[in-house]
Design a protein that fits this description.
It comes from Rugamonas apoptosis. Keywords: Coiled coil, Signal. This is DUF4124 domain-containing protein. The chain is mainly α. The chain folds into two domains: about 45 residues, no CATH class; about 80 residues. Helices cover about 50% and strands about 5% of the residues. β1 and β2 form a beta hairpin. It is flat.
Length: about 160
């Protein structure tokens, strides 16, 4: 009887691992008949096979704690007056404009070197694949520089 039960157990273990619905129980009645089931009946024991999940007892979860609303800023919280904020914004605008000019110069240099997709080959680029790799890197650099310029222009437009 055990030799016939072994293939069934292997098959059930494989299907349980694939499905992972729940545990497998082996039940033996008074006459000695064995039954495999997924229902825990009196006189059944859980099988110890790979992928056989033991059901965890269900617990009631405590409700999530309430979060307090953020406290308002105290009355003595430091504030910046409008003149100082305008000076800070002017400094920020100057820095962003300088970064924009620098990025535009960098882009102009990259485009000049790129030469409309036909940059000059270097002496160490006898292999055409090396040349193509450098051209691809140049395209990426140009694209990145263009995106930086767009971002700087958006940031400058956000300053009031």
């Amino acid at each position: 009887m055990t030799t016939r039960l072994l293939p069934v157990l292997v098959l059930l273990a494989a299907s349980a691992a694939a499905r992972a619905d729940g545990p497998i129980y082996l039940c033996v009645d008074a006459a000695g008949h064995k039954e495999l089931t997924d229902a825990n009946k009196p006189g059944c024991r859980i099988l110890d096979v790979p992928g056989n999940a033991v059901p965890a007892p269900q617990r009631r979860q405590a409700p999530a704690p309430m979060r307090a609303a953020p406290a308002p800023a105290p009355a003595d919280f430091p504030r910046v007056d409008s003149a100082e904020q305008k000076a800070r914004d002017a400094d920020r605008l100057g820095i962003l404009n300088e970064e924009l000019r620098s990025e535009q110069q960098k882009l102009a240099g990259l485009r000049k070197e790129f030469n409309n997709g036909e940059p000059e080959r270097h002496g160490d680029e006898r292999n055409y694949a090396k040349y193509q790799e450098r051209v691809a890197q140049m395209r990426d650099s140009i694209s990145r520089s263009e995106k930086n310029i767009e971002a700087l222009k958006r940031e400058i437009a956000n300053i009031r």
